Amino acid sequence: MAYWIGNWQGILALKVEQEPHIRNAASLELAAKAAARAKAEERYQKLVADSTSTARNNGIDLAKDLKGGLAKLAAMPTGEKAQNAYAAAFASWAKDPAQAAAAAATAEALSAGLEKMAALKGTANGWAQADPQKCLDWASGLPVGNADVLKTALAEVSNPRNDNRQPALAAQYVGKLPDASLRNEAIQAIGKNWANGLQDPGSGEGAEPAAALDWLNQVAIGDTYDQTVKDIFGKLSGDNPSLAATLIDKVTEPDVRDVTIGEVAYGLSHESFNSAVQWLQSLPDTDKTAKDNALTSIVVGLAERDPAEANTFMLNSPNATTYLTAAVTNPNVMEYLEPQLALNWVNALPAGDTKDNALNSALVHMAKADFDSAWSYAANLPDGAGAYHDMDGTVTGTVKDSLLSELTNTDPAKAASLIAQLPSGAGQLDAIKTVAETWVVKDMTGFVQWVNGLPPGSEHDAAVAQAINSVKNYQGGRGQFPAPESASLLQKLNQAITGKPTP
């Protein structure tokens, strides 16, 4: 999925379920959100479809037995279950156009409380499906304190799942909500619902989202506009990116436009990478920053899906360095890239911290499949190449440190044997510490045999000191060692090394 450069955030929710090989964190998060949205929609559709049977399962049919049904509702213990029962019973009743007014009058006559509010909202929900105009007239005329009922009605009248939906009509009633917060919430709900009606009867494809965006440009400001438009394009770019591309000029806020350009480009790239590139190139120069960021993003996405095609595109582009840098600094690209191709990309970068860090990562990745080849490659590097740099440029470890750390997780004895190949000095001591840190908590017996075989001196002392520190601070699957357990392990370690019990 999308990997934004600089200040851009990964926000693209595009066909993750159809692209299981896209594995980065952003796509996983968006996949989870998409699944949650699908489940919520499924629950909603079931509630609407089964509202009549739900009421009847509770033995309640207000249209046939109003007195008995109300008595059963009143007998329920107060709480969420009772509120759901009121909402279902009144929604079922109000779905009948001939009965909706009676349902509304009955709900209004109930005693004040959460159950009454549930009944009023249920009525709004059902009546909005039966007769949107009359529902909105009723909800907008309720006494002060019932604004949530009108908000419910507005959402349902505009709902794409409502066969009688009329989002343009709902838009006319937003101003009847009593405060800005509720109006903004309603604008968001109506805007998104309106835009989701892609092919309403009598409307050409794109008429609904176009109308929604035109309306938002007139009534929405600030965060309400920004978030609603982002949500609209987030969904539309996944469902129909070609249509989304035709609507981009309706986005009037520059920052939001930058984001939506990225969303649309990523959606298009999953249909045709070349089409996405051509669309980006067709945008005006005023969109240059957004175009550049979006192009880099879709190149990285291509590198995840089709490294060979990405390789051809990047190396033949005048912006090769930008694209290669973005690709090799994305751990999801490097993790699944063929090791030799990863090295080719790294070696095409100019010298510097970015190249060194990427080389370090590429060799660690190679080592997981073929440690000996990675170690041999590292041995032939110039001094300092592949060293890992932190954010301020400070070197925090050599490439061989990283490889030994990786090997120690699977074969600490082999890692220890390779230390002898390193030149004596600070680098060798660092390598000893790297091995000791992991080995002692994975296999104390093996570690003790190794450390007792080291000659007295700085190497032996460094290994012991690192081992003691590692045991004290070990974070395992159960969390940090409890103090008694840590003390016990330290005693065992001390006795094994010195041959004497801890005093």
List descriptors.
mainly alpha, two-stranded antiparallel sheet, 28 helices, 503 residues
Written account of the structure:
The protein has 28 helices and four strands. It has helices spanning 25-49, 51-57, 66-75, 80-94, 100-109, 114-130, 132-140, 147-157, 167-173, 180-195, 207-219, 222-239, 241-246, 254-271, 273-282, 288-305, 307-315, 320-328, 331-336, 339-347, 353-369, 371-379, 399-408, 412-418, 426-442, 444-453, 458-473, 483-498; strands spanning 388-389, 395-397, 475-476, 479-480. It has a two-stranded antiparallel sheet with strand order 1-2. A hairpin with a 2-residue loop joins β3 and β4. The longest helix has 25 residues, at 25-49.
Give a brief description.
The protein is mainly alpha-helical and 503 residues long. It is 69% helix and 2% strand. It has 28 helices and four strands.
